[in-house]
Design goal:
- The chain is α+β, with helices and mostly antiparallel strands.
- The protein has a single domain, classed as 2-Layer Sandwich (Alpha-Beta Plaits).
- The protein contains seven helices and five strands.
- Strands 2-3-1-4-5 form a five-stranded antiparallel beta sheet.
- The two termini are about 25 Å apart.
- This is GGDEF domain-containing protein.
- InterPro entries: GGDEF_dom, Nucleotide_cyclase, Rev_trsase/Diguanyl_cyclase.
- Pfam families: GGDEF.
Length: about 160
């Protein structure tokens, strides 16, 4: 992972920890959402390109996402997972369509060989109630594990042959 990715990830986790604490105290007053993009099978990427080139391709997607989103949106990469913290959430359809478009464009460099799941989560009291004492990393893991029941919107982009 590049230094920019490590720095972005740390900034993202720090901000998410703060938002989780504030959301617990002031439910309903904040408008944030989390978008999760999961490249389903990093093993296929590694076997197709080799581990180093696959990692480089994922770094390119991370850079592309950070460049394409607003400066107030935070993008973090964790392996084959990308998380985007979006303040003052635009209408869900616009956000969802934008992420889908960005991933399709970014994937033209070969990453379309794996399935990509996109999930949108509102950062609300309901989303954090089952993860009361979670760190940001624990919360992201909880969302990923329970994405079917917690996501307000979800799509899977199939792999290309």
């Amino acid at each position: 992972m590049l230094n920019d990715d490590i720095e972005a990830r740390e900034k993202f986790l720090f901000t998410l920890n703060w938002l989780l604490a504030v959301t617990k105290r002031h439910s309903g007053n904040l408008q944030f959402c989390l978008a999760h993009i999961n490249f389903e099978n990093p093993r296929i990427l590694g076997e197709t390109y080799g581990a180093q080139k696959a990692s480089h391709k994922l770094d390119e997607v991370s850079h592309f996402l950070r460049k394409t989103f607003r400066k107030t949106d935070l993008v973090a990469r964790d392996g084959g997972d990308f998380w985007i913290l979006v303040p003052y959430t635009p209408p869900e359809e616009k956000l969802f369509d934008k992420i889908k478009y960005i991933i399709e464009i970014a994937s033209q460099g070969g990453l379309q060989i794996v399935e990509r799941d996109i999930s949108i989560f509102p950062l609300s009291q309901h989303a954090i109630e089952h993860c009361e004492d979670c760190t940001a990393l624990d919360f992201l893991s909880y969302l990923k594990k329970n994405h079917i029941s917690l996501a307000s919107r979800e799509i899977s982009l199939p792999h290309s042959e």
